[in-house]
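Weekend entry, working from home. Most of the wet-lab plans are on hold until the incubator is repaired, so I used the time to fold the two sequences that have been sitting in the queue since the last round of cloning. Logging both here for the record. First:
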Amino acid sequence: MENKIIYETAIILISGILCGRIVKQIKLPNVTGYLIAGLILGPSILNWIPISMVNGFGVISDIALAFIAFSIGCEFSLSYFKKVGIAPIIIAIFEAGIAIVLVTGTCMFFGFDIKLSIMLGAIAAATAPAQTIMVINQYNAKGPLTSMLLSVVAIDDAVALIAFGCATTIVKMISSSKVSLVASLFNPFYEIVISVIIGGLFSLGLVYIIKFFKKRTNRLSLVIAFVLGAYWVATKLNGSPLLTCMAIGAVLTNISDEADELNKISEAFTPPIFMIFFVISGAGFDANALKGIGLIGVIYVIMRVLGKMLGAWLGGKVSKQNKEVCRYLGPTLMPQAGVALGLVVVAESLVPEYASSIRAVILCSTFIYSIIGPVVAKIALRKAGEIKI
């Protein structure tokens, strides 16, 4: 069994690298290549990675989720938000919140289960900025829209993680008939507060201990230990592991002058972990589930985009942005990948009866957004007059 795991891991990494390189040639993000590699190797096509092997890589998923959340937290610098003001926060809350409401509400309107609707709605909040940033860099886009876009995507996933943490608590309450009204009101508050406390304490501990170690390898080991340790403690204390790891990064980046260095050190460790995670996510895709997701898949793809566009427009109006930002910011927020796929793993554990449907919807929408998202972003930036073609 051990030899088979080693063999499968090697196949996963090689296929991920090759497919990532191939899709890069057609201007698609690497994560799309990783998902395609998993789809080809998984039970739906070649079955080189059987479903039992997908389940066996659960610990890799936990590690990947922990460091995805940690990296998001590291972007949460108070000095940065003092410089750009409150407008990006307002817009991020509006675009994520309205996407959640539209996806959840429309799914429930068409008769889908409330737990499934809430989970899909919460995942809809997440945005993957990589494709849009690629367009910005390729065409050297500059202007108010570009500046606001970069600010919004810096905090969008943080908003998404907080929203998802609240959604998971609600789903847990719905699933348990023994939960009292007091507990229903207290649980979301407890989960957020305990997660922030755990993350803050672990971050303080890391900042103190790291002073005694200067070697990069030792520092990398400490970062891994503290992030994974906090993830485990949050699980045991019924907090949100994702919010906890995000809190570690957020506290670290605001209290330590070495935060950037520690984040860069961790980035040397995470690429193969993320690659395995996304290939495994693709391998876990059940092609047979496509038959049953027609309507809900269409609802998710359309309502999420409408929510992002309407939310960005309203948020822009509330924060008094110019008409180009209000009109064209929403379309640039279409792409979705890394964080959303990570949240799928958590959602599947909460509503296992809908696991295949959730994975199918998110993977299909990820492919769609990855293909059309950069094109739409390019058009929006051009119409705003911030790129010349």
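Second, folded right after the first finished:
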Amino acid sequence: MKSRITKKLSSLKLNKQKAFIPFITAGYPNLKLTEKLIYTFAECDCSVVELGVPFSDPMADGPIIQKANEVALKKGLKFKDILNLVKKVRKKTDIPILLMGYYNPMFKYGLKKLAQDCNQAGVDGLLVVDLPPEEATELKSALKNSPIDLIYLLAPTSTIDRIKLAKKHGSGFTYYVSLTGVTGSANLNPKEIAQQIKKIKKYIKQPINIGFGISKPVHVKKLAPLADGVVVGSSILKIINEAGSEKKVLQQTKKYVLSMRQAL
């Protein structure tokens, strides 16, 4: 049972194209705008949409995403609200949707219920930042009868053993964190990234997408050839912060995403 993520990324690879995966925090600044942004990403022919599940202690995220988390949580956003949004979006678009978040809210929701409700809503993948593959047995077991991918992060510090575990337990794609630190950081080193991805590809055959620190078309041009695609997040949230009106947010996001996609 192949997921929408696997089908989309396989199709891109077959056509020698790269994936462009935008990230936004669900419910920031409100669910209505999140919905409209998903449709904008679909219009721009993005490969997968990564929706951040707000959490009170997002340790891997930089200040921009942390602020987005705070705003969404202050408005009382619940995990169920995100699933309802995905369900609504599914009436209009088939774009693959990946939920990225932390284990605590998912565990509290109940893993079996999580798997069932995500599947019914039309979620295609889960990336749990603070759940390493060796500790994901319960979640993997809950997901086994659904086409939902479990995606893992690998970093410059990942050992061969960790890479092998990500291969054994993961599906859909592998998310390579291009630098140590938090999201939105700079100082990308393409040579070092190329070496790391070459090492990972010895063990992992599924697509590898690079994220963290990618904010300009020049970054995409340098990094996309090294892997199967790129993930871009903090810079999109920055547009949401600064654009002002909803109309301007949507216009500027579309313009930015298209400029980044053209650099692939």
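Plan for Monday: verify the second prediction. The beta strands are 19-25, 49-52, 97-101, 125-128, 149-154, 174-177, 208-211, 229-232.
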